[in-house]
Amino acid sequence: MAKRSRARNFCGVLQSVLAAATLYGFLFLLVTVYQKGSLPASPKELYKNPLSHRPGSSSDQTGTKGPSSKLIIEKINPKANWFNRPESLVTPRDNFLGKRPHVDTIANLTKLVEECRGSYEKIEKMPYVYDCLKYLDQGVKEYFYTPPRGEGASEQSPKYAEYLNADGVDNTMNEYPAYKPASKDSMGRCNGPIIPYHVYWTGPATWRVGLFIKSHFHTQNIPCVRLFIWLDGDRDSKAVDKMLNQDPLFEKFLPFVARGDIVLKTWKFPSRIPLPPGDNTDGVGYYKSPGKPNSKNETLVAEGLIRDAKGQEWLVLTEKQMTFLPVAVSDAVRFVVLHLYGGAYFDMDVIMLRDMRPLLIGDEHSFAERWGGHPSPGDYNTAIMSLSANSSLSSYLLRGGVRMGLNFHPRVIGVMAVKDHRNREFHMLETAAFDPIWTEFNWGRLGKCTVPCIHDYAQVFKGKNGFPLKDEWKTYDGPQLKLAGAKSRGHFWEIRDVEERAVMPVMTESVSYDRDVLSKTEYKIEEDNYPPTNRTLENFFRGAWTYHIHNQWLKNPEPSSWLNVIQRAHDGFFSHGRMNPYGEKWDGPNIPEYEISWEYP
Question: I need a labelling partner for 307 at 20 to 30 A (CA). Which of 41, 422, 443, 577 fits?
């Protein structure tokens, strides 16, 4: 009997272990798909490319080894000579967005929500991402407006501005100065409020930091914005010093730190946070008999709230709460920073495509986006979000996260806001605005596919043997694209035969090459594994304000991929006299081009 009992126990333990292993494997696969943007090609890929940490979120980023400067590389194909690979087979139209919006132009957030979601209860338009993008692109005259004379933000006194340094001199001016564009030696002057943008990062800079910063300077109204990069001082007290003095990749952006475009800030979770006037107890009420004043003449007036001698109320974190700081640091950073400074927060894995200012200059500019295709009114995603500084809403959201054990996950905060009937103050913009393939990735899209038609987050990295990628152009109905160097016009299907001949692999040997010689050698498209295509920035989710890469931190874009097309547009703007989407040319400090990724033949 004892032997039989031991056998049964052993079998029960074995079954539990197998069940746990199966569950772990399933969860690991789910996380892999989320981080990499697609299913692994084979089981080998799971252990060959383990999950990477997400900078600016719950894990430190130790950075990746930069590309080698040596040319003793096995994968270089000297015959194709990709040093001289053309950017595109078609002539890109850089100034496709037209003139930049006026400094006082406001986007009607309510209109954007209604047109892309439908009614609040039925959200009947929400799954139709193509239609929303089309409206964002073609409906500008409907949802953009300029306030009546005398009511624009630039016509108000900086002394009463929402932002702390709206005039560049701590809100001491009586009126905003005349506009002065940025130049090599100056970040210029804004003729309206300067808006702060915030990002969070931990560890050394990678090419993705450069991608975000370049997209910022490529699209935003530079004199009218300041970029604050918050570096985690709780984990590394010397983070700012290291980025300023020991970070070779960030070194290229030091001129912008020197002149004030970029401000590096140390992030430390505050032990107390100022709150606005009014009831800060969320309806619970203040103590009928407040505690006795402490040595600083501060009084405990409610749970977690103190009031100083000047009547200012503060949200106070206990020593126990400070011991258990949130694991997902960046989830908390955005709510605290926006409460203190206002403006907009961006995850670092975002690419800016349009000027964000019209979304941020109105009186009611608090917003985030929807979590994929999820229909719940509380399913927020805060990869891109905005709050008014020291406002009733920002303080409510902040207090809620603290009250729930420093849990600032957007969907948890969203459920709280819905329960308290405050979610309508916090606009939920649809995924088309900031993350146009998320609904597609969640299998929730209805109607036409987007342009380009992309189904998973890994596709924007792909260039080899992949033009066009599946059905990426199937819903494009715009004008024919002009072939570069040709008088005739043609769609991609007219050059597809050339593309298919061009992607045959070429065997190479490991030898040393002279870069100067290669840079003067003729490019041969028929021997290029990553030939140029008709992809241009103009047709990359036209209408969206940003594109969210969703992690994939250790990947590099293949040549001629959509991300590489964006890189080439940036380099053309900063180094080769091309225009940005608003028809402007760069006259600022030199920004070196993206490093060549040696891993692609």
Answer: 422
**338 in Cβ contact with 394 (< 8 Å):** yes
Calpha distance 547→581 (Å, rounded): 15
Quote the tokens at residue 486. Answer: 């040709």
> Cα(first)–Cα(last) distance of the chain, in Å?
67
Three-state DSSP class for residue 365: coil
| Residue 443 exposed, middle or buried by CB count within 10 Å (0-12, 13-18, 19+) | exposed
Q: What is the pTM of this model?
A: 0.84
Structure tokens at 522: 């003729």
Tokens of 590: 């030199």
d(CA 565, CA 572): 10
Per-residue pLDDT of 506-544, as tens digits, reads: 344 445 566 677 677 777 777 787 888 899 999 999 999
303 alpha-carbon distance from chain centroid: 36
Work out the widest C-alpha separation in the chain, in whole angstroms.
Answer: 94
Contact yes or no for 518/72 (Cβ under 8 A): no
Q: Which two tokens stand for residue 433?
A: 């605005």
Residue 16 in tokens: 């539990």
365 close to 109: Cβ distance less than 8 angstroms: yes
H or E element at residue 131: helix 129-138
Q: How far is CA 213 from CA 96, 314, 350, in A?
A: 21, 34, 10
Does residue 389 have a pLDDT over 90? Answer: yes
- pLDDT tens digit string along 295-350? 999 999 998 899 999 999 999 987 667 665 655 788 999 999 999 999 999 999 99
State both tokens at 160: 């009463």
State the alpha helices, DSSP H only, in 435-550.
438-441, 492-502, 515-518
Is residue 399 helix, strand or coil?
A: helix
Share of the chain residues as helix, strand and coil, in percent rounded to the nearest 5: 35, 15, 55
Collapsing DSSP to helix, strand or coil, 338 comes out as helix
Question: In the structure encoding, which two tokens stand for residue 150, read together?
Answer: 């005398």
Strand boundaries in 468-523, DSSP class E:
511-512
How many other CB atoms are found less than 10 A from the CB of residue 185? Answer: 10
